[in-house]
């Protein structure tokens, strides 16, 4: 915690140059974004009025009233994001009676097709009201198509920040959310990235919403689970813990787990599916 306070104060630690270069490479090309061949699924274009691509996977033998799981990828600064498709396919294979829809965020290309909208600079500048509204509308269209009994949102990294902003806006109609590796205090996260990477780009003004400032809008009935790796150098654990505490102050019950030994790119780790299974079982249970 003391180290994190020093980061917030922009205290610059002395470190070997090769460590800085290694961290910068890890930030620029997250391993999760490198899947060359995303699994097959049904591609559905949602008009919002911008067109957003979703790739949808269904559990074998899906019945009526499925749980809709909507997945949002991270900022993916250097490579087209496809890992969200892999995760959604894994969800449909592992959990019964779910529809897992991976959304390609506004302005992003997955290497094959591109969603409409502005991608931004991937510096936390694209968690804007317009992006949040586009995702809300996409979720509404998916709900209209599949008539789910409940909606669970899953966001990784920047996608987790957008998910949290969406919950704070009270527009999404989600029953639960799993936030993974979340930069949920936007100002603190950008300060941290400026300390790690340097560059004026991290100090430019942005129009993005910070989840921690929107925490008072999250409905207390929403089930929220947060996961972060203890070795996450991109969105360190204090960001998750601070947001969880802000939610608790507003009456939201939230679980926030720091998973020992894991880094930033953990969406495809088994623990994430385990936590999602718990949320899906919870929203299926009678109230």
Short description:
The protein is α/β, with parallel strands linked by helices and 287 residues long.
Q: What's the CATH class, please?
A: Alpha Beta
Uncertain spans, ≥5 residues at pLDDT below 50? 1-35
Overall structural class, as computed from helix and strand content, comes to alpha/beta
- H/E element string? HHEEEHEHEHEHEHEH
- Just name the CATH architecture: 3-Layer(aba) Sandwich
The global form is: globular
Identify the strand order in the major beta sheet.
1-2-4-3-5-6-7-8
Structure notes:
- This protein has 287 residues and is an alpha/beta fold.
- It has a single domain, classed as Rossmann fold.
- It contains 8 helices and 8 strands.
- It has an 8-stranded mixed beta sheet with strand order 1-2-4-3-5-6-7-8, with helices on both faces.
- α4 (129-146) packs across α5.
- Residues 1-35 have low confidence and may be disordered.
List the helices and strands and how they pair.
Elements: H1 2-8, H2 17-28, E1 42-47, E2 51-58, E3 67-72, H3 83-94, E4 98-103, H4 129-146, E5 150-156, H5 158-169, E6 176-180, H6 186-197, E7 223-229, H7 237-249, E8 254-259, H8 270-284
Parallel strand pairs: 3-4, 3-5, 5-6, 6-7, 7-8
Antiparallel strand pairs: 1-2, 2-4
Any descriptors?
single chain; 287 residues; alpha/beta; Rossmann fold; 8-stranded mixed sheet; 8 helices; globular; disordered N terminus
């Amino acid at each position: 915690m003391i180290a994190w306070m020093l980061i917030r104060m922009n205290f610059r630690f002395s470190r070997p140059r090769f460590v800085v270069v290694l961290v910068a490479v890890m930030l620029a090309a997250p391993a999760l974004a490198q899947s060359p061949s995303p699994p097959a699924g049904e591609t559905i274009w949602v008009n919002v009025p911008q067109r957003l691509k979703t790739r949808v996977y269904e559990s074998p033998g899906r019945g009526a009233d499925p749980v809709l799981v909507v997945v949002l990828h991270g900022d993916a600064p250097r490579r087209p994001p496809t890992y969200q498709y892999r995760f959604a396919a894994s969800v449909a294979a592992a959990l019964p009676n779910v529809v897992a829809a991976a959304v390609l965020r506004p302005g992003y290309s997955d290497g094959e097709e591109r969603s409409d909208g502005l991608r931004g600079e991937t510096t936390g500048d694209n968690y804007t009201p317009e992006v949040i509204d586009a995702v809300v509308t996409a979720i509404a269209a998916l709900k209209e198509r599949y008539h789910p009994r409940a909606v669970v949102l899953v966001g990784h990294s920047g996608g987790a920040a957008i998910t949290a902003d969406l919950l704070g806006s009270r527009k999404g109609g989600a029953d639960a959310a799993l936030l993974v590796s979340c930069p949920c205090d936007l100002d603190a996260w950008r300060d941290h990235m400026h300390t790690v990477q340097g560059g004026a780009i991290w100090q430019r003004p942005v129009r993005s919403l910070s989840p921690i400032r929107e925490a008072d809008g999250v409905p207390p009935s929403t089930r929220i689970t947060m996961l972060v790796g203890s070795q996450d150098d991109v969105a360190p654990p204090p960001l998750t813990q601070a947001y969880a505490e802000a939610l608790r102050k507003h009456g939201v019950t939230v679980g926030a787990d720091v998973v020992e030994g894991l880094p930033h790119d953990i969406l495809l780790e088994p623990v994430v599916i385990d936590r999602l299974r718990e949320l899906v079982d919870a929203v299926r249970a009678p109230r």
